[in-house]
User: What shape does this take?
Amino acid sequence: MILDTTDLIISVMYFFLLFLSIFWLIVLVTSKEDKQERKMQRFPLFTVIVPAFNEQGSIVQTLESALKLDYPPEKVQIIVVNDGSTDRTKALVEEVIKGYPHRDITLINQENKGKGSAMNNGLKFVKGEFFASLDADSFVSPDALKKMIVHFDADPQLAAVCPLLKVKKPENTLQKVQWYEYLINMFYRQLNAHIDCIHVTPGPFSIYRTKVVQDLGGYDEKNLTEDLEIAIRLQKHHYKIIQRFDAVVETVTPQTWRSLFRQRVRWYKGSIDNALAYKSLMFNKNYGDFGFLRMPTIIASGAIAIILTVVLLQQVLSRAWSWLSSLQAVNYDLLTLIKGFTFQFNILSLPFFKVTIAVTLMAISFFIMMYSFKVVEEKITNHGRTWVSLLLYLTVYSIFISTVWIAIAFRYASRRKDYWK
Assistant: This one.
């Protein structure tokens, strides 16, 4: 009975994943790229808000990337909100301000209250018609602003434009694994953009229409993932969000499994928290694909990962127990057990339904990976020999992400407080 139940669960999960894969392939084939070239007709005032907490290793480079934007300098305002840093962040920002006396750079110091609070504090001093959040460990390319801001005048309902995110110079194997992940995620963001289903405006240089964000009350200061919450809130009020792939922003990623684990727990738990907070959007016809597809899959993705992991673990333990029972039957004489082993294979006994779906999913996954490199204009060998990191991404990383989801489920079940607050 257990085996039958397990087979049923796996079959249902496989079918659901196959359905989603085919759906996204249809979106890819039927969608048309917006290749219209738009030229700057005007140069509106623009503000960059840089929230910073203990960012002495990158804050100067981040600010220099903002200062080098290909945009009239007198039209760019930079606001740095020092969120109670205990390192040299404040001093380094002050040095940058002294080095650029003719630029509009403001430093705001506050007690450590979190990124949402820092963004809201910065919003109080914004002069720009449009503003961007720029994480203090991210670096914007000089031409990104022009390529993004030009879209706002074409559509008054457009509230935010997201850039193409890439991992900055991945050094160790783990960062190269994340490099693959970011590239593939960008492909999925492209598909979501085609059907107006973007659910997060990333901290590294997403641009917003200032009045819209201010009218909506600014950022949620108690939210784990304020960039995801503000995006869902924009969708709730029927504003548009678009994704650009010609505006590059690089970001520094975690260098250790521990720091990556903490980051992903925060990200994914934040996504679940927000999906539940905005559950009224789910399966709501007023929100189209966003309500029927994007919002439910935020929760479904975690549930599928947990279910498949539990089922896999159950099968591994069941076979291990069977092997131990066989070993006990021969009084733990391993040599006798090996000699008595006979390999039997009958192709007709294979579960063709599951094998067919699994092979199809693998083929689609391979296509997605190859297409992702095309979308972001990268080559698989851009960072030297990456085959080890590719293998880790295809195998170990999926197990790692499943572990993250299990940890999140445990936090919900035990009602533990979030350790990053």
